[in-house]
Amino acid sequence: MTHLHRRTFLKGTLGATTLALAASAGLLKPERVLAAEWSKPAFEAKSINDALKALFGASQATASGSIKIKAPIQAENGAVVPIAVSAALPNVQGLAVFVEKNAQPLVASVALTGAEGYFSARMKMGQTSDVHVVCRAGGKLYSAKQTIKVTVGGCGG
Amino acid sequence: MARQTRIRTKTQDGHTEILVLVNHPMETGQRVDPKTKEKVPAHFIQKMAFTLNGKEVAVADLGVAVSKDPLVGVKLKGAKAGDKVKVTWSDNKGESNSADAVV
């Protein structure tokens, strides 16, 4: 009899938590659009798909030739890999840079509200990997990638 | 102590590039201190906001994979000479600083 009670109690709490989770997910959405908050789940995501979902709410991106990645084919020092991204697409709203084989693939995400579809930075790469750039333009996602070879990794000691 | 933040603009063919250099360690939180064998806590810039004449034009969210002493650039179209650009950044430990320049 006591066990039965325990079951029903557990079921009840489980239901309540899923509801709460759904509510918080719904509440978080507008924040994402405004990009007001630094997106912790996106930066901590272990895969590009997860990070994309956390950032833009979708992971489907069309490959586009309009996105240009200017980065070395071979980088000697993985701690400092210069990269410049430009997207010649109309209505560019955001750009995100990912390094596929880094522990946390998302390098940076830029919300553009007036500036051109351009972003440059220097990033760390743990090892030779594909670098993906995802551009959000007119509500759709476009992507491009390039492989960068790294001789000395830039993560860790 | 406020960290050194430098901003520079370069105009070419109607496009203005804003380059920002911040003196910042950008610790990933995964590096191990060789002396103490303990992990160095994460310390990195999370937000970088660019404004043109007070209006926000771009907000960059940076992760730990951005190199130390980050040099970040964005481009503006049609910025005129005399326009004011400003950058403000903040990191995960609550430090922040800003710098401005005239195109």
Automatic annotation (TrEMBL), chain A:
Pfam families: SoxY. PROSITE patterns: TAT. InterPro entries: SoxY, SoxY_sf, Sulphur_oxidation_SoxY, TAT_signal. Residues 1-22 form the signal peptide. It comes from the Bacteria. Keywords: Signal. Residues 53-155 form the Ig-like SoxY domain. NCBIfam families: SoxY_true_GGCGG. This is Thiosulfate oxidation carrier protein SoxY.
TrEMBL record, chain B:
Residues 9-100 form the Sulphur oxidation protein SoxZ domain. Pfam families: SoxZ. This is Thiosulfate oxidation carrier complex protein SoxZ.
